[in-house]
Amino acid sequence: MEKFIKVKCSACGEEKTVFYAASRKVVCSCGQILSAPTGGRAAIIGEKTE
Q: The domain containing residue 45 runs over which residues?
């Protein structure tokens, strides 16, 4: 299982590396939320890239 996931912002196209079990929301520099905590695995809101 991967511990980090690359997520692409759907608004500006910037990519960030996100911990798959993030305990805080991850926000892009443009203000778009990329992932949110769920108590376990983070909910990915942006586009997951390889």
A: 4-49
